[in-house]
Amino acid sequence: MELEALHQVQGVQGSSYPIYLGEGLLDDALPNMIVERGYTNIAIATNETLEPLYGKPLVKRLREYDSYMIVLPDDEKYSGLNTVHIIFNQLLLRNADRSTVIVALGGRVIIELVSFVGATYMYGVDVINCPTTPLAMVDTSIGGKGAIDLPQGRNLIGTFKDPIAVFADLQSLETLPVSEMRNGLAGIVKTALVGDPDLIDMLTPDDQSRLAYRPERLRTIIERAMAVKVPIVEADHTGLGERLHLNLGYTFAFALEKATGYKLPHGEALAVGLVAAVRLSHRMGLCDAALVQRTEQVLQSLNPSNAPVSYAIPQGRAIDVWEAMRHDPKWRQGKARFVLLQGPGQPIIHDDVPQELVLEVIESLADGVYPRPRSWRMVL
User: Fold this and answer.
1) Are residues 78 and 147 in the same domain?
2) Would 100 be classed as within a structural domain?
């Protein structure tokens, strides 16, 4: 039976690519597509954690073909030019050419790196995205954005090149560590605030029976989050218009990561960034206090200790976060630009936000340090 795509995303110049969501896709559907398309040089880029779980089994299924792994460290700090050079070198050693396909098997970092490499190696090779985290499934894998970091900040060099397919295998979520689950939850809250406010209700626990991993519920949540992003990237391929709305919270999040020496995990940074964005929206007179309260409540409810989402910036260091924002790609002519909210599902790009208001919001985050529990069960 032919696999049915959840979405057929319209890309640039009339092209399109399918998104598949289901269980066991890495076992059969992915290798079947690779074989059917006749690829003879197959690079599988993954990290040290995923290599034994999914990388080696995939290479085994493709053992009759020229398939090999490019294994990278499982650490967000390996998301810069040095790692890109490693991937380029591995491809050259394997005689990869423009008929090669690269399978991006991993989370946000792997997919952004491979998308960048796919757009630039020998002027472009095919890429198949296989996201293994909720954040990568609903966000990073859709839209063809490739990005790498510089010492000055996140995602400062980038490209746009659509994948030929996305395979989101829900079984890959069963082995996720706590931090990656948090990444996904914060990312889905962001998506809900931008385009599906009712989705927030599915993320808020109303009784203890929902405090467990539930694949059927998770699938519904991911489907709805994907349904928000797909039409946005179809309407704005290169992020100069509506697609910027998907950066809600990230201006604060990336700056917090940079200002803290990347000691703040990405998922926590995004949660804090979302709180900061809605607080700034309220202080700018764009939304009411109820939206601030609702956002903070849902993020707090997803935290197993039920503590408020906060981060203590050392006294007098809020200016460091502001300075880290200066390299944000959204800024124009040296003026601060933020994605803010006029209401649930009503994002807006606001130009020239006053520095003093931003500093006030940053300082308001210092209600305590956002907790980092050792283990917890996903709230669905």
Assistant:
1) yes
2) yes
Which domain does 344 fall in, by range?
178-364
The reply to whether 165 and 246 lie within a common domain is no
- Nearest Cα to 283, choosing from 363, 361, 362? 361
Query: Quick one: 53 and 136 in the same domain?
Result: yes
Q: What pairs with residue 17 in β-bridges? A: 9
Residues 294 and 301: their CA atoms lie apart, in Å, by: 10
Q: Within the chain, how many helices (H) and strands (E) appear? A: 14, 11
Q: Which residues of 242-269 are buried (b: 16+ CB within 10 A; e: fewer)?
A: bbbbbbbbbbbbbbbbbbbebebbbbbb
Share of the chain above pLDDT 70, in %: 89
Within this chain, do residues 165 and 259 fall inside the same structural domain, yes or no?
no
In which band, very low, low, confident or very high, does the pLDDT at 48 lie, cut at 50, 70 and 90?
Answer: very high
Q: For residues 175, 258, 144 and 139, what is the CA-based torsion angle, rounded to 10 degrees?
A: 50
The CA distance from 48 to 73, in Å, is: 6
CA distances from residue 116 to 72, 97, 232, 289, 346 in whole angstroms, order as listed: 15, 16, 21, 40, 31
CB proximity list for 366: less than 8 A, separation 6 or greater: 310, 311, 312, 313
Within a domain: residue 135? yes
Residue 334 has pLDDT above 90, yes or no: no
Give me the sign of the Cα torsion angle 250, 256, 257, 263: negative
* Rg over CA atoms, the chain: 20
Q: What is the pLDDT of residues 310-321, one digit of tens each?
A: 676 777 788 999
pTM attached to this predicted model: 0.91
Average pLDDT, the chain: 88
> Could you read off the pLDDT of 61-115 as tens digits, one per residue?
998 899 999 999 998 889 999 999 999 999 999 999 999 999 999 999 999 999 9
Contact 67, 105 (CB under 8 A): no
What domain count does the chain have? Answer: 2
78-101 burial, b at 16+ Cβ within 10 Å, e below that, comes to: bbeeebbebbeebbeebebeeebb
Last residue of a domain, one of 114, 144, 175: 175
- Per-residue model confidence (pLDDT) at position 195: 97
Q: 313: domain CATH number?
A: 1.20.1090.10
Same domain, 253 and 289: yes
